[in-house]
Structure formats: structure tokens, C-alpha cells
Amino acid sequence: MKVLLVGVGGVGEAIAQIAKPRKWLELMVLADYNIRRCEEVQAKLGDSARFPVAYVDASDQASIEQLARKYGVDLIMNSVDPVFNKQIFDAAYNVGASYMDMAMTLSELHPEKPYELPGVKLGDYQFEKAADWERKGQLALVGIGVEPGMADVFARYAQDYLFDEIEEIGIRDGANLQIEGYDFAPSFSIWTTIEECLNPPIIWEQERGWFTTAPFSEPEVFDFPEIGPVEVVNVEHEEVLLVPRWVKTKRVTFKYGLGDKFIDVLKTLHMLGLDNKDKIDVKGVQVAPRDVVAACLPNPAYLGDKMHGKTCAGTWVKGIKDGREKQVYLYQVADNQACMKAWGCQAVVAQTAFSAVIAMDLLKHGQWQGAGVLGPEAFPPLPFMERMAEYGFPYGIRDMTPELQAA
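Request: output the structure for the sequence above.
Response:
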């Protein structure tokens, strides 16, 4: 398989590192606007023949197409902030390559009732073009990181193997990561973090369809394996847009353990207008406030040696099996020190990256096949889950049925 990797930040590097030992990977072009970063990652990989570097402007669709044609790639892997998704998605369609991303095209607020109704939803742009992709027999696999991605595979597995009827699916994400030397240092792209945490969270219910709430709504304490109890809140996320399309359930939510300090910082950024992604004039220079915030904070790709702790991602499912109530949590725990030792990448980016590499493996070997714009739920879950331990990210299943916990 020949892959054009657009974006060589923390997650992009982790994708390359995890894919490197795989014989099915013939070529992975490390493409970014920061050539120096590409060369740095290439040097770490120690294989310039299989991992050539190239400059790309992710906002320029023509340049993406030119690069894809130059290397004759089978797949374009989108590993940049989702503000660039449309161009990369459309470039893949035009050159006839398969497409994968880990976050779908961005949402837009409802003009009148942003905390009640969705406006443009995550992925709407992509799903509106699904018929075109299907007619060409071409695949766009959207949302194939850890969340969305692995969590969606777990939802499909729960439907196929664990439940007769599902009442609710809730993606739950928590961590106990600490970063030495910083009072505030996100372990993931702050641009994306601001986008998903300050946008109105979206919820899906069978009777109402998709609707929105206020940011940080419906707090609950969730007990994460190997981490313990963490307060989680509603956050806008792709799983809520993907799961109901392929998995039959009555409700879908996404909740994330942000912590009071992190929430206070996000609220302050919003209050000051520093979350704005539209450019403003600053002494004759056009600059987006959110880009300034991102530039002022440390790059998550370089925080691995300062991070300690674990992160847990997974899917909580409530339903009926054999006429009795059942609850389970399917999860994956990534330890930062283990990730640094294995791949030289911190836990959050490594955990995000591995699903994309497994998906490449499954597509290459024909175990996942399809055409159109599809989420991870559209594919059989077992081939993916069977590879997780092989790739260094074993999953677990915790029975959370109330009567069993009481016993």
C-alpha cells in the first residue's frame, strides 16, 4: 500500500511509527507545510526510501492532488486539523484514491437555537457526497482514530455479539495524565480541543434525532479501568453522528473528562474571544485568535518525555441480553511510558493513531471492503479487535451490570 500522509504532527508521526514494521506498507509520504518537521520524523524512522518527505499546503486542494498523483498513492490519510478536511477529502475523490480521517468536516452553529438544534453537523459535507463516492466504487472511511474509530468498532461489536437490544451507547474518555513543568498544556491539538469542547455538544435519541445542549452539560462520574473515578461532561464528537447510522440504539452520547481547571481555561478563552477561528486585524496583520493560542502553547508532539500516567478510551453500552439488563464498558488503556518506549510517541497521539494503521492493514488485505462514505461501524468488528493486541493496544471489557457490581 502507498499512502500520502497529510500532516506530520504528533498523530502523524505516531501513524508512521506504528506502520513502519508492517510489510504491507510499501510507501508513506510524509507531507506537511513544515518540511523541517517531516525531516525530523523521517530521521527517527531511519528509512528515507519508504518514508519520503514532501511539502504540502493542506488548504490547497490542487497541491494535494499533484502530490498524490506524483507518488501514485492508494490512500490519502488526513492527519491535520479538520479545518482542512474538505480540500483533502475532495482531493482524494478527484485522484481516485481511498480516503481516511480521524475527525470529520466541521459543524456550524444553528443560527437561532444553537443549544437546542444542530446547524451543519459534523461530517454533513462528507455524507452529502456519499452517493458520488459510491458510484465511483471509491471508499472514504471517516472517523477512524480512537474516538471516533475504535470506540465505534466497539459499538458495532456490542450490537453484533453482546446484546439483543441496546438502550444507550455512551463514549466515555478519561485520563490521569500529568505534564511536568506546565500549568496548562493540552496533550492533543488545542485547535481541535477548543472546537469540540466549546461547540454545543450533540446528542442522538431515537425519538428526537440529533439535538444539542450547552457545553459541559450533564456531568457524571465514570469509573475508568486503571484510572478510577473521573467527572465527565458532554462534548461535541463524531461518534454521536456515526453510531446511529449503523447501530440500532435509543440514545448516543459522548462525554469527556476535562477537569475543572481545563474547563475554566476554555471558558476564559471563549469569554475573551480567543477561541475565534476567523482572522482579525492586529496592527495590520490578519491573524486568527485561536491560532495565536495554539502558537503560545507547547506542541503536544514534544511533551511525551514530560507526561506521566494513562489515558482510557471506550464505549459504555446499556441494553438487554437474554431478557435481562446488561451494561458493559469496552475500553483501551494506553500508558504513556509504554508508548514512549515502544514508538517514541506520547500516549494520546499513539492511541489516536493505531486505529488508522489497523484500518489500512484491513483494507490492504480485503478484510474491510466498501464504497461510499462509511464510518467504522459499517465494517465487521472482529478483524479490527483481533489485531489490537498485535499492534500493542489490547482491549478490555468490564461488566458494569448493576446487580453484578452490588454482588
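Residues 347-364 form the longest helix (18 residues).
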